[in-house]
Design brief:
130 residues, alpha/beta
């Protein structure tokens, strides 16, 4: 079994601004070598992007899901990202951490809502005050 070292970040491109903020918050841990965040923004021109995503998922110890209606509506996420992440959670102990960005049907998404989210779905990130 390949040792998993990455933190795979799954998100809808409609929520790219939240990805950017998350990466900022994770940067000190990355700098200290504690985590290796991975999102599709790391795919270089000319790379086979589907293969790169599969490789990253196979090397991940943690998956952070940035959940919104756009996330839940994404066929690519539902069909290509979530199945291998859920299988790795079941078989290999991958940790799935949902961050509820916006009000959405998260609780009806039984495949991911069975994992404890970082925040209460009734208090999405966009409603929080700093």
């Amino acid at each position: 079994m390949t040792k998993r070292t990455k933190v795979f970040i799954s998100y809808s491109h409609a929520d790219s601004n939240h990805l950017s903020r998350l990466k900022t918050h994770l940067r000190p841990f990355e700098r200290d070598g504690l985590i290796e965040p991975w999102s599709d923004t790391r795919i270089a021109a000319g790379q086979k992007w589907r293969d790169e995503i599969k490789i990253a998922i196979s090397q991940s110890a943690v998956a952070i899901l940035l959940v919104s209606a756009d996330f839940l509506a994404s066929d690519f996420i539902a069909e290509d990202e979530l199945p291998p992440l859920l299988a790795a959670a079941e078989k290999e102990g991958l940790k799935i951490i949902s961050v509820i960005l916006k009000k959405c049907a998260y609780e009806e998404a039984k495949n991911i809502s069975c994992f404890q989210a970082i925040n209460n779905p009734s208090k999405p990130v966009i409603s929080m005050h700093t």
